[in-house]
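Subgroup meeting minutes
Present: P.N., E.W., G.H.
Scribe: E.W.

1. P.N. recapped why we're keeping a running log of single-chain structure predictions: easier to compare across weeks, and new members can see raw inputs and outputs side by side.
2. G.H. added today's entry (257 aa).
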Amino acid sequence: MVAALILGSGSGQLARHYLNQREPAAPLPGVTAVQAEPMQPVEVGAGTMPTPIAIPDHILLPAPFTTQAPLNNWAQHQESCEAATLTMLVAYWQHDQSVVIDPHATDASINRIDGWKAHPDLNDVLMRELAQQHFGYTYRLVPNDPKVIAEQLAAGRPLIAEVRTHALGNPHYPGYSSHYEQTGWSVPHFVLIIGYDSTGVFLNDPGISWGRGYHITYAQLAHAIDSLDQNQPALNEGQVLLLVAPETPTRVKPGSI
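Output recorded in log:
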């Protein structure tokens, strides 16, 4: 039981840290205006697939941020990275203009989503089923590929990645320099990809207050996924990202039925 608690997706008291912000958070520099497009049906007939668009060289979506312990209640929320990531994603699709989501509303949302989880640790499949069952969103697994990331974010769709915390390379994680990717310090974790540029991606990482808009290289993202796959085989789904979004209602052409 003790080992299970130490190895959980949000577990390890030492692997989490929160810094109370004394001043309101400012928007991230470089946020870009993007018209968020719901997902198209995979295949509904000719003329229904999205029109190709020019891909900008960088995108940073205005996705609201929260840590997974918004009231600094880490003992309660050691397993809440999934709930926090979904809370940010839902707030984004509901056009929440907050920079940091109201902590009390966020805590209520995280508690509610935590109550829906069948297991402390979710993989991508269980995560997407949670989003579908309780928010009505559709989903797709997409390759962890810079071109795919750019295509989806240029359409205004954040992506979810399952990784290990310290493998992200954020030195603000406690024990990063002395313990780096040791089990019990680096744990399974979900983050929201909210932007990209020529060198990598921008994350909203709910596991740490310094995770808002944190930039990592494409190689670091691939490493963080590989680190999860190697250290948590039960969660291994390979180099994929999770796309979760509302779906465009299917339009049936006259005479097609």
